[in-house]
UniProtKB/TrEMBL annotation:
Coiled-coil annotated residue ranges, if any: none
Apple domain span: 115-181
SMART domains listed in its UniProt record: PAN_AP
GO biological process: recognition of pollen
Pfam families registered for this protein in UniProt: PAN_2, S_locus_glycop
UniProt xrefs under InterPro entries: Pan_app (IPR003609), S_locus_glycoprot_dom (IPR000858)
GO molecular function annotations of the record: kinase activity
Keywords: Disulfide bond, Kinase, Receptor, Signal, Transferase
The name this protein goes by in its record: S receptor kinase
């Protein structure tokens, strides 16, 4: 969304079940542009003009949009200082690093999971969902059944609705560390 449209560049974004592809075509052959992904996970586009000027943009442009900035079980909040915080029931893995505003090491549980049916989940509102790389999705069940499924699995770390419209529907379950909240 932060990309501007220019008359010398045509963009194409495709998203379907098989692929997510972004392409661009330069319509003016005297202007050059390249899109790169940095090792830190930033998308950067640099454009060179005939006048030898260079223009570029980088995404993400907000700290909280940086992948894993607050590590496992940490969440990013631009309003707080430092921006990294631990989910309730967790504490910084390395408190000295957090004091230096480096939350990349994330957080650890204050108490171990008992897995005897007495564990509880903390509700987080107005948050971006964690990385879903290893999440499991079931579109057929609602939040109540999703919660039960998660409570009965000692590896379950979180659950949520897939669709939050109306009263919500579907179920997504995480069974590994929660990242990128």
């Amino acid at each position: 969304p932060e990309m501007l449209e220019f008359d010398y560049m045509v963009y194409n974004f495709t998203e379907n079940r098989e692929e997510i592809v972004y392409t661009f075509l330069m319509t003016n052959r005297s202007i050059y542009s390249r899109l790169t992904m940095t090792p830190a996970g930033y998308l950067q586009q640099s454009t060179w003009f005939p006048t030898e000027e260079e223009a570029s943009w980088v995404s993400p442009n907000e700290q909280c949009d940086t992948y894993r900035i607050c590590g496992p079980y940490g969440y990013c909040d631009m309003i707080t200082s430092p921006i990294c915080n631990c989910i309730k029931g967790f504490t910084p893995r390395y408190s000295e690093a957090w004091k230096l505003k480096d939350g990349a090491s994330g957080c650890v549980r204050k108490t171990p999971v008992s897995c005897n049916g007495k564990d509880e989940f903390v509700q987080l509102k107005n948050m971006k969902l964690p990385d879903t790389t290893s999440a499991v999705v079931d579109k057929r069940i609602g939040l109540a059944e999703c919660r039960e499924r998660c409570l009965n699995d000692c590896n379950c770390t979180a659950f949520a609705n897939i669709n939050i419209q109306d009263r919500g529907s579907g179920c997504v379950v995480w069974t590994r560390e929660l990242l990128d909240i």
